[in-house]
Specification:
The complex is a heterodimer. By secondary structure, chain A is mostly beta strands. Helix content of chain A is 0%, strand content 52%. Chain A has strands at residues 5-7, 10-13, 19-24, 31-37, 43-50, 53-57, 65-68, 75-79, 88-95, 100-102, 106-110. In chain A, a hairpin with a 6-residue loop joins strand 7 (65-68) and strand 8. Chain B has no helices and eleven strands. Chain B has strands at residues 3-7, 10-14, 19-25, 29-37, 43-50, 55-58, 61-66, 71-76, 85-93, 101-102, 106-111. Classes of the chains: A mainly beta, B mainly beta.
């Protein structure tokens, strides 16, 4: 059964460093998303991406964040200068309009 | 906030019993989806119910939706220890937004 994959599973970085989180969505899906979950809190929407552009973003998704679909398969989230409060589980999801299927997540720890 | 809360926040039952979790929301929706999350792991999609549907089944799962009360319930029948997880509802709202808004979830423990 097709699934969303994410790498790495765990990333540790120093405050101020740039990180890139990678996702491979389900191959025939057209809509892509990033969400995050701070430990013990709700899953929060960050951004949606369709037709090679951002279709919606939350107020969390400020200038430090960017997304890219560099080729036909990968979908990346970049955080330019990480802060302590960026520590969270980051989930990628993809859909063909209705059901959103999530990847296993990348646990980002900012020290 | 567009999303209410799931209730209960935590539920502990014995294997073989049924588990019922509820979810409320505040504005009109297109769809409501239920997800399962094992501790510290990814979100597994369980079932989607559309705003014009009232009930849906998938294996041991039964989901109901009452749009007049803006609420949904997830019933797991004949629970197993492997059902131990957190369960979340997520809604996408009318008005063209695709984003999902999640509740805080119900932590279900099924004791063997």
């Amino acid at each position: 059964e097709p699934e969303v994959t994410q790498t790495p599973s765990h990333q540790v970085t120093q405050m101020g460093q740039e990180v890139i989180l990678r996702c491979v969505p389900i191959s025939n899906h057209l809509y892509f998303y990033w969400y995050r979950q701070i430990l013990g809190q709700k899953v929060e929407f960050l951004v949606s991406f369709y037709n090679n552009e951002i279709s919606e973003k939350s107020e969390i998704f400020d200038d430090q964040f960017s997304v890219e679909r560099p080729d036909g398969s990968n979908f990346t989230l970049k955080i330019r200068s990480t802060k302590l409060e960026d520590s969270a589980m980051y989930f990628c999801a993809s859909s063909n309009y209705n059901e959103q299927f999530f990847g296993p997540g990348t646990r980002l720890t900012v020290l | 906030s567009q999303q209410g809360e799931e209730d209960p926040q935590a539920l502990s039952i014995q294997e073989g019993e049924n588990a019922t979790m509820n979810c409320s929301y505040k504005t009109s929706i297109n769809n409501l989806q239920w997800y399962r999350q094992n501790s510290g792991r990814g979100l597994v999609h369980l079932i989607l119910i559309r705003s014009n549907e009232r009930e849906k089944h998938s294996g041991r799962l039964r989901v109901t939706l009452d749009t007049s009360k803006k609420s949904s319930s997830l019933l797991i029948t004949a629970s197993r220890a492997a059902d131990t997880a957190s369960y979340f509802c997520a809604t996408d709202f009318q008005g063209g937004s695709e984003k999902l808004v999640f509740g805080k979830g119900t932590k279900l423990t099924v004791n063997p």
